[in-house]
Amino acid sequence: MPSQDRRSAGRRRAWGRGPIILKFDALERREVMSALGSTLPDLVTSSLVTDTSADWGDPVTATGQVTNQGRSTVTTAFNVGIYASSKSTVGKYSVLLGEVTIPAGLEPGQSVPFTTTVKLPTTQVPGVSSNGVVYIDTKVDPEGVVKESNRRNNTGVGAGFDSVALQVAPHQQAALTASGIGVYPTAVDWGGTMQVTAQIKNESYGVAPATRALVVLTPAGSAFGSLSDLTIGSISVPTIPAWSSVNVETSVTLPSMVPRIVEGSSSYTLTIVPDGDYETNTTYPRNPVGGVGVDQTPVTVNTTDTTPTTTAETALPNLAPGGVTVSSGTLSWGNSFQVSTVLQNLGSADPGAFRVRFVLVNGNGDTTAGLFLGDTVIQGLAPGTTQTLTQSLTLPNRLPAGVTLSSSEVGRIAVIVDPEHVINESFSNNNTAMSGPVNLKLLGSDGSTYVPNYPAPKQLLAVNNSKLAARADARAAAAAAKAASTAQHRKLYRKPVKTNSVLHSLSVFPKSVNNFIKKYV
After folding, report:
1. How far apart, in Å, are the Cα atoms of 488 and each of 49, 98, 152, 222, 233?
2. 148-177 burial, b if ≥16 CB within 10 A, otherwise e?
3. Contact 83, 119 (CB under 8 A)
4. What is the pTM of this model?
5. Is 236 in the same domain as 342?
6. 122 and 18: one domain?
7. How many domains does the chain have?
8. Which helix (H) or strand (E) holds 521?
9. Average pLDDT taken over every residue of the chain
10. How confident is the model over 83-117, as pLDDT tens digits?
11. Which domain covers residue 7, as residue numbers?
12. Residue 423 belongs to some domain of the structure
């Protein structure tokens, strides 16, 4: 083929690609937009530090700073969103934890600090791996109120700038036990006074908050936990550090009238029950573990000729809960719900203040094993009257060590009036009512169908955890310092390379096409 024909054929082939490479208007418009964008603000999170570990539902403190690395002042206020994510950038499955408002007036090159406390979700974030690491991420101006030159760096810049890895870990629980008991005198009349001393130990790495230990009388021959238990007083127990003990005492005055549930007895077992308010462990009910000489001791309570006893004419209350309804037929792990019941006084006297307890039990309604959900105190109920009680409760994020509960199980909510048997009632067998069955949707934080457990109380992890936490804090502080020092000297997330000429834009095409453009354009 003659050379002239070959050139003609080459031109025809080149022009066949013309509609693809010769869009000069679009390229020119891109240049104009790039030039205009360079005069706009450019916002970015230039530093972020958070707590290094927390459990689901815990508060987390986030401290950081936002930098304007653009060329004009931000003229309007904007928000910085704080998210929990399975990755180090905000995505469609990220959970918004809260926002911080940055006021207007952020000038070019200026940074503004922020500090806020947010709360982790009560359930796991979608996509979190089995190692329990969740990312706390920020996104600048998630609502898009500020016109910026580059919005691609509003999130996803990197660790230490707008993302921090946080380890989801359970707290060490306390484990309270009564390791010693003393009573004086060991024989007393009804209406008399006893001095009760006890030693309370915390046999775990968790710190035990201030609690209330119960002093309970059980007639000899009756098992502890029966309807014959009578709480005659309580002992205030202060905060106990890990692996420590305290000695406490109280003066207990017995009722002047013999309560109906212990009539006919004179020999009793006195028991010290630590943590009567379930502050350290939600396993229900509380039971003695040491036995006589450790957390139990025998005592005698005598009836004299002058001791009043219950007669048919004695005015006593009779408390009973009515029907129990739950706000949802499915209860989810870590979520809140409401329980409603009607309290009745079927007796002839006002009991004064009394306690109402809510317990999650299994589907058959057995109250000898369950999870404590909460207490409330009612300030009296006149004879022959009723009172509607609605209580907000929350299923726990984690179960006590050794307790398993699968997502396929069915439970019920038990409402127990006067659970400690403090009130002298004419009849006590009607103090408990049950809800209907509810489905327990309990997805664990590791993605399994089981609720995760707290670690065993004596698990030797505290020393290692403290060292790891110290190292993680040091690394986070170093990263924050580095981010703060470099944020003013370099831009975060570089912009795309500008296209300064048509030939530069066309350099990705074959060399023959470029030669054609150079010759004929």
Report:
1. 18, 27, 19, 76, 65
2. bbbeebbbbbeebbbbbebbbbbebbbbbb
3. no
4. 0.72
5. no
6. no
7. 4
8. none
9. 83
10. 999 999 999 889 999 999 999 999 999 999 999 99
11. 3-37+497-520
12. yes
